[in-house]
Amino acid sequence: MDITVNILLTIATAATPLLIAAIGELVVERSGVLNLGVEGMMIMGAVGGFGAGYLTGSPWIGLLAAIALGAVFSLLFAVMTLSLATNQVATGLSLTLLGLGLSGMMGTSFVGQPGARLPNLDIPGLTAIPVVGRLLFGQDPIFYISIALTAAVMWFLFKTRTGLTLRSIGDSHTSAHALGIHVIRYRYLAVIFGGACAGLAGGHLSLVYTPQWVENMTAGRGWIALALVVFASWRPWRVLAGAYIFGAVWIGQLHAQAFGIPVPSQLLSSLPYLATIVVLVLISRNKRLTMMNTPASLGQPFVPDR
Amino acid sequence: MSANQDGANLLEVRGLTKIFGTLTACDHIDLDVAKGEIHALLGENGAGKSTLVKMLFGTLEPNSGEILWNGQAVTITSPGFAKKLGIGMVFQHFSLFEALTAAENIALSLDDGSPISTIAAKARALSYSYGLPLDPQSLVGDLSVGERQRIEIIRCLLQTPQLIILDEPTSVLTPQEADKLFETLERLRSEGKSILYISHRLEEVKRICDRATVLRHGKVVGHCNPREETAASLARMMVGNDVQAVVRAPARGIETAQPLLEIRALSRKPATPFSIPLRNINLTVRAGEVIGIAGVAGNGQGEFFESVSGEVPQQDAASVRIRGKDAGGLGITGRRLMGAAFVPEERLGHGAAPRMKLSENLLLSRHATDGKVFVGAGGMVKSDAIYAASQRIIEAMDVRKSAPDPEAAALSGGNLQKFIVGRELDRRPDVMVVNQPTWGVDAGAAAHIRQTLIGLARSGSAVLVISQDLDELFEISDAIAVMHNGVLSKPLPIAEATFEKVGLLMGGAEPGHVEHVLETS
């Protein structure tokens, strides 16, 4: 029983950073902007979160620093692609490369240092309940943030007028502009929100998952988050499902490797990617729904003629 | 009935100028719109009409000049500000969001923050009171162009504007839908609203407008009362000289002529969730005749053209036959080699590569059919031969250009279209299929293109023309078929075709039903 609970907890821990980064990127892409710099913003959040936590001794300050650094880093992308109308793909890629390099440089003195760790929730009485107690009331704070964030984004996009406006910009920025909607302003806010989320996801890695600083510690999670958004056809609950499938198969194959199952480890390592894609493609079979949810102006620079 | 001439002017425009690079799109435009009048803004494509209204609606910034609203000078900096003043706009190229519902689309342009359900109820009530029924829950992507325009109009009316700008509103409507629109506009005028009505269709301007301002090459060339003018005198003001009428010599012996293009039970599944399936289309085009296909935009004409041209090959090879041989399984090059030629609707990016020279565009479309002339040993391109051929086409079609061999994108729409049509005609094709031959082309060039198409047919080719412009089809066709919702009607011989009959078919009436309606009415 304890083993099952432990495995479920590790799955949640593996899925949480993917979920947060992907939900942030989902909002960005729903506004019609393709930010391929998720990996870069995440690693900046990771190094910033670790650094601030390590230097002040407070993981909570580390958490805020992670969010802030991700947001500031995304602002760079926003200025380039939205104000200067540069190519979003190229700018996003360079943001990732810049983030990986910059974080390595900033983190040289942190390597091998013990970091601050965010404590798990501990509610007297509730957390001690067998099985469900630790699953529901004993996880790290960012886990709860990730679930609340998914629900909030869902509500925002589909129940509020501002969310409708954001989706309309993603569908056609020229039409939105013709209606007098401030396309660029909305996109700035969306990109910064996405950056803050990526930063938070990075902070989760260096403050919860493995509370230390290792160069390139995001290990491609930003790219997985990006893929999740597309395969989940830009729908929040599917992103959540995708992140947890990925986390579950990831943890599963780690255990399988530990047991020494006679399957090449490379094949096992590729399983999470394969499983996530298969499941998300299966649930996205409805072409019509997919069309309705695909932001049609994704990746196109918007320059209003003046 | 007539304009409230003694009432104050709602809108006055003084010396409004807009310059794009070296082009003066609007040159010191003066315009007055009185309260309670329908004011026409007439002009050919490229005369500056759209630029002018974009400045009035705040999406473009004028270089100089001023706008007075109720006598007060205003600077319209954004569409939001224009809406606050009381200016509403119904766009030519709709500003709708396909993936959202009608109600959501309407909600986006209102700032009052009321819930979608309230807006949907209001929109439904308003739409029925104006006789423009609308289901607020329907997805825009599923709607016909006419229905989309209703959303634009309802959305505009919900903002209770004092001035409504309509940009070429009838270009996407059936004649019957247009009548409905005119009723709505007359009702709005009787409610004291002003309407700025942009069009190049003279008959409808004569019918509903109280005054007209005519633009040519960015300048105002006259103000007039369209009711006192004739269509010919308005056309002369618009174009600057008399437009040569197209002459269609009667076609003889068509019934016995050889069928050059045959379409047999052509069906196609929708390619995307929002596109139209083709259902069992049958059509024969014989040597010597021009067949026109009418229809409201978005009823499957684009899908039909793709299937006939071979951009999308068919499963059933016999569904398209060119000169008596099966061509359904072939791609566009294979069909060209059988003697067919195709001109797609979109000029830039489909009919021509924008950033390539005219001679290069010629090679792109004819490298296979004219391989021996244009391509030498070892696949080397014979630039001289291609250049000579492109100059021959330019001369034959009277293409006006600024350089000997300019990029396609450097030509105006009309001149590029002349080149693209000429490129295909130069081959003397046996079968010619053209989608929207004169869309956005000025009157002189359009007449030239139409005359050339008739000439090609009379010299023994089969010509198939898909167009939304009914006047054009009546001018050039020997028979007109109508496409509605992916179904093609039987061709009506031109002697039997009337606007009314074709219009009913465009609106989706059954052919038998059309006869019935016309007999009882």
UniProtKB/TrEMBL annotation, chain A:
<feature type="transmembrane region" description="Helical">
    <location>
        <begin position="6"/>
        <end position="28"/>
    </location>
</feature>
<dbReference type="Pfam" id="PF02653">
    <property type="entry name" value="BPD_transp_2"/>
</dbReference>
<feature type="transmembrane region" description="Helical">
    <location>
        <begin position="267"/>
        <end position="283"/>
    </location>
</feature>
<feature type="transmembrane region" description="Helical">
    <location>
        <begin position="216"/>
        <end position="234"/>
    </location>
</feature>
<feature type="transmembrane region" description="Helical">
    <location>
        <begin position="241"/>
        <end position="261"/>
    </location>
</feature>
<feature type="transmembrane region" description="Helical">
    <location>
        <begin position="89"/>
        <end position="111"/>
    </location>
</feature>
<feature type="transmembrane region" description="Helical">
    <location>
        <begin position="141"/>
        <end position="158"/>
    </location>
</feature>
<dbReference type="GO" id="GO:0022857">
    <property type="term" value="F:transmembrane transporter activity"/>
</dbReference>
<feature type="transmembrane region" description="Helical">
    <location>
        <begin position="188"/>
        <end position="210"/>
    </location>
</feature>
<protein>
    <submittedName>
        <fullName>Nucleoside ABC transporter membrane protein</fullName>
    </submittedName>
</protein>
<feature type="transmembrane region" description="Helical">
    <location>
        <begin position="33"/>
        <end position="54"/>
    </location>
</feature>
<dbReference type="GO" id="GO:0005886">
    <property type="term" value="C:plasma membrane"/>
</dbReference>
<dbReference type="InterPro" id="IPR001851">
    <property type="entry name" value="ABC_transp_permease"/>
</dbReference>
<feature type="transmembrane region" description="Helical">
    <location>
        <begin position="60"/>
        <end position="82"/>
    </location>
</feature>
<keyword id="KW-1003">Cell membrane</keyword>
<keyword id="KW-0472">Membrane</keyword>
<keyword id="KW-1133">Transmembrane helix</keyword>
<keyword id="KW-0812">Transmembrane</keyword>
